[in-house]
């Protein structure tokens, strides 16, 4: 059976995914700080809009919007032109800890859903699920809220990347231990100085590489060395 795939447009990444991410999949992008999650997610939105005219939405829950601006200037990706053409939306979500967070999550879902309809978005990024959960203290509520949120996001009909901060441990694939139950795919990024790596842990409905591949962050963004391999044993654990 031929399945419909979404090309990330990231050199080497579509190759290790057997052609791309299955359309409408929700994929967790997990990794420690500075391993390239935000850059990869931005590149996914940028390439979709710039190369394939597929509208995309980038939701940031980062407290510092400046980081996003830096990344974009850094790689000379002209998001502004794409925003003007309604091919890209970049939105920041923020929560007020004094109010009911579950209700705010509901509101955010409605807003995201409306944005998806408005521009006919095919790609969506939530960066990061970890930051969204930061506002919720109680662990039970946290897991439940994140689970509900991710389940609802899946229904929006977009191919979605959900970034998740981990400690950087090679066997950690999410922040709250709930992401994996909702996700169709899990991609882990590693940064064991001086080496960066990428590993497709799971991708429902498709074959994929089972190796850890070197990843480089260049002045044009992320490049995956799909022909090369990093040995699993060489990724340090703590
Ligand atoms: N132009 C560049 N060339 C090489 N590496 C870069 C460049 N820009 C950023 N980086 C690297 O990318 C890292 C940030 O990646 P980012 O996607 O924000 O990480 P994460 O979201 O996983 O925390 C920086 O810490 C730096 O090491
Ligand atoms: Mg980030």
UniProtKB/TrEMBL annotation:
UniProt xrefs under Pfam families: ATPase
Gene3D superfamilies per UniProt: P-loop containing nucleotide triphosphate hydrolases
Presence of keyword Nucleotide-binding: yes
Domain of life from the UniProt record: Archaea
Keywords carried by this UniProt record: ATP-binding, Nucleotide-binding
GO molecular function: ATP binding
Entries under SUPFAM superfamilies matching the protein: P-loop containing nucleoside triphosphate hydrolases
Domain (KaiC) ranges: 4-238
InterPro entries per record: KaiC-like_dom, KaiC_dom, P-loop_NTPase
Protein name, per record: AAA family ATPase
